[in-house]
Amino acid sequence: MSGKEMDFKHSKNLTKWVRYILCVQIVLAIISIGSNFLEYQLLTDLQNGAYVSQIEAFDDAESSDRRQQILNVINIIVFIISGLLILIWIYRANYNSHQLGAKDMDFTPGWSIGYFFIPILALWKPYLAMKEIWQTSHNPNNWALEQAGTILRVWWFFWIVSNIVAQIGFRVSLEPKELQDFINSNIVMQISDLLTIPLAASTLILISSIYKAQYAALKAKQTNEDN
């Protein structure tokens, strides 16, 4: 067994857990959409004066707040876990691309995730890093000639749009707390939850494709070395 082969870090279990957490994100997004819609109905009813009893309105509002708070906590936990797992996965995928024999790569494992945290550069550098991982995974020896898959562009589109909507949602939440402000914030959150579904789905497809490509490349490398 060659040194390079020994250095290849198998990611079967890591990929499995990333897939699981992405599926959880999709399910949680669907639940959040339903919960946010219920909150939207409550807010519009309050705005339109549909409640004849203040006690009933207060009870419904308190119940809605409690439900939303629970979902928010779960969403934050899942977001942190999924973010960490995906970053670890990207780091390892880049590392494995180097081990598969890809030469003259522009990104190191560290920078393949580091650019996510640098303002301005985060708008395109992570995409280029993932594109390079895709190319080197599908064609390690001639990766510069490899065309990036469409799913890569789909993933990045939803990543950018989701982040823009999240920023809008944050700014809206800082506005004076009139009832209409709560309604506006709710609408933005519903859009954000909707975007989470295609983002998670495209991420799932993307990592699965790269994972399969890297193991196919590893098998081919082993066969060539044995011969």
Automatic annotation (TrEMBL):
Domain of life, source organism: Bacteria
KW Phosphoprotein (keyword) present: no
Annotated Pfam families: DUF4328 (PF14219)
Classification via InterPro entries: DUF4328 (IPR025565)
UniProt KW Glycoprotein keyword: no
Listed transmembrane segments: 17-38, 70-91, 111-130, 151-170, 190-211
Domain DUF4328 residue range list: 58-211
Protein name: DUF4328 domain-containing protein
Keywords, alphabetical: Membrane, Transmembrane, Transmembrane helix
Species whose genome carries this gene: Neptunicella marina
